[in-house]
Design a protein that fits this description.
Helix content is 31%, strand content 20%. By secondary structure, the chain is an alpha+beta fold. Strands 2-1-13-12-11 form a 5-stranded antiparallel beta sheet. A 3-stranded antiparallel beta sheet has the order 3-7-6. The longest helix is centred in the last third of the chain and has 17 residues. It starts with a strand and ends with a helix.
Amino acid sequence: KNTGIISYLLFENDKIVIDVSDIPKKVSSGHTILDGLLPSHSMGKSLVSYVTGHAICEGYIDNVNVKLNDWPLIKDTLYEDAVLLDLLNMRGGDQKWVGERRNEGSSDNRIKGEKKEENVNVIGLERVMNKYLRGTEKSKLIYNYSALTTNVIMNYVKFKAGDNWDKLLHKVFNEHVGVKNKVQFQKSRKYLKYEDFVSARYSFYANRYDYLRIAKTMMDDWHNDTCAGKYLKTIYENRVQKKDNTKKATDVGLYTKSYGGQIHFDIFGIDKKRKILGLSGFAGQQILIDLDNKRIIVVSSLYRNYNWKKIVYSVIKN
């Protein structure tokens, strides 16, 4: 009751060995539970990457090295000539405007404005480009964790898939993963009635077991060397270094050395040869996929008040 955890799953030896939950029907303060579906928060960034990999496999996008210069929405902005892989690695050159580099110790989703800051997850991508970024130029390509960067990736995939966007999502989650319940990404709500372009956002909702199904499918893709598995290996091989946040060791996002394709890699204190995928979200949402030992941990929480090193880190490490 005091930890904030509402679901904990441990999967190993091809079965669930720990299955504990206490999920309230209604939750306020940004942690809305939709008919048993739990929010991903920033874990959804990694799922956007997984969908991007499938978009490449389906031929909507050529490869991770394409430039986004065929997308009219981002013309004459700092993202116009961006390389997809750089954005996947949070190297958008957008640190003057948005992200953790600009908002040190604060939110990654607030964009710089003349009078006030707005949440890029809420206002929609067309408003972001037209009000804030038209006429801007990219800065040096450095790691800058940012909500906007992910939403640019997601909506570029949506643009490339065109009328097949829903079909692509159905193929990934219903056909490939085989989810048993409804899953969904959200849309940006504000200003939709004023815009032609409906923005997708990385905020994702799924049943606790479907989060595990998604994680296990990613693990199986890796080991079976499927097209999606090759994509995961590509982003792992092209990961970039992050700064040391070990003093804030409260989740895998803060306790990893590198980042690739919207996924955290190389956990401090664990052999660098071990391949572990880390998905991390606000308020303590965690998925860790230990590819070498075929072990998965899925944690859903209302707030982060649990001993991460004891119940997540130590389990994966050992």
